[in-house]
Design goal:
single chain; 351 residues; alpha+beta; Beta-Lactamase; 5-stranded antiparallel beta sheet; 15 helices; elongated
Length: 351
């Protein structure tokens, strides 16, 4: 495009330089030219024409504008400058025709001639082009922002512990992280991703025993509720043992996209068959437990009974039971089973 524009405007060279994803200014008309590298690393910072354009009032630069170099800098001072003597003149930039995009980065599209000044024909042609350049650059910036946001969201879901799945109110899959795609395809697993023959969509299915309750907590989250949690036991054929899953469903914040079945719901699926206790310090820091209460909380998640905890800590059973009630209250857990769910999720984050 740069070559075609140079021919159309009868210019010897051109530059269209804007900020790339890494924050570096790149001339897309001459991306591989050594002279452009010299400009980007040094002469960009002492370019008196660009400096003058960057000081123009927003009202003047807010609309597409075309100027000549002599209209924004003093001709004699410019020709005495280091930029002109060491860079512009040796590179055939005696005359410059400059189109201002009018964005916050003061982006310009420039064309150069060595001997002849640019006339009204070239100026009018560039004036007609600049509105399209402005819209194109604005679209590029929106696409880059959208892509960055998508990558960050994807990375966040991939970083979640265990299987993370986003569904609508009817359990149709909107997103599943890599762990979910791998784990939920295991033979004999009580939760699976199933493709529907009617329309080819993929749905999150739960075995009959807990299917109704799972659908209820997902629908509740999608319709403005807080979601919920269930624990599923199953025959783990691969490991020849009884497996247990902690399944938590929670509504996601509104994303500005209307869904047919309500708010998107995040479903986290974690294997708690082999309990792993988070350190006591973590319970104390998160829930305001004392050191003794944090130690009791960690011991309970390690599979110990109240009696064993009392014996190991050399305190009375009544003391431990009082501490357990405090742990449930401060963690907002309904009962010990609910507390096990909270602890299992914490353990996945610290391991």
């Amino acid at each position: 495009m740069g070559q075609r524009l140079c021919r159309y405007l009868d210019a010897e060279a051109g530059a269209f330089r804007f900020r790339d994803c890494n924050g570096r200014y790149t001339n897309v008309f001459q991306a591989s030219e050594a002279d452009d590298d010299r400009y980007s690393t040094y002469y960009l910072h002492i370019d008196p024409v660009r400096s003058a354009i960057s000081r123009m009032k927003p009202a003047a630069a807010g609309a597409e504008t075309v100027v000549l170099a002599d209209e924004v800098v003093d001709r004699e001072s410019y020709r005495r400058s280091e930029f002109y003597q060491d860079f512009a003149r040796p590179n055939g930039r005696e005359n410059m025709l400059i189109g201002l995009v009018g964005d916050s980065d003061h982006t310009v599209m420039s064309f150069f001639r060595d001997g002849r000044a640019f006339g009204n024909r070239e100026r009018t042609a560039l004036e007609q082009l600049m509105p399209h350049v402005r819209r194109g650059l604005s679209m590029r910036q929106r696409l880059i922002k959208s892509e960055l946001e998508s990558r960050l969201a994807y990375a966040a879901f991939e970083a979640l512990p265990g299987s993370a799945v986003v569904v609508d109110g009817e359990c149709n899959i909107l997103f599943a992280n890599t762990t979910a795609n791998r784990t939920l395809s295991r033979k004999g697993f009580p939760i699976s991703l199933s493709r529907l023959p009617t329309d080819g969509s993929i749905r999150l299915l739960v075995d009959r025993g807990e299917a109704a309750k799972f659908r209820d907590i997902v629908r509740g989250g999608a319709q403005g509720g807080s979601g919920g949690a269930i624990r599923i036991e199953f025959d783990d054929i691969e490991n020849a043992r009884i497996g247990q899953l902690a399944v938590v469903a929670t509504p996601l914040p509104a994303c500005g996209t209307a869904l047919a079945f309500g708010t998107p719901v995040l479903v986290l699926i974690n294997d708690i068959s082999q309990p792993r206790s988070a350190p006591p310090r973590l319970f104390s820091e998160l829930f305001g437990l004392s050191a003794a209460e944090g130690a009791v909380a960690a011991a309970l998640l390690g599979g110990q009974t109240a009696e064993i905890v009392a014996r190991d800590r050399k305190v009375s059973l009544d003391t431990v039971r009082t501490q357990i009630r405090t742990v449930l209250r401060k963690t907002d857990a309904a009962n010990l089973r609910d507390f096990e769910r909270i602890g299992a999720l914490l353990a996945t984050y610290v391991h």
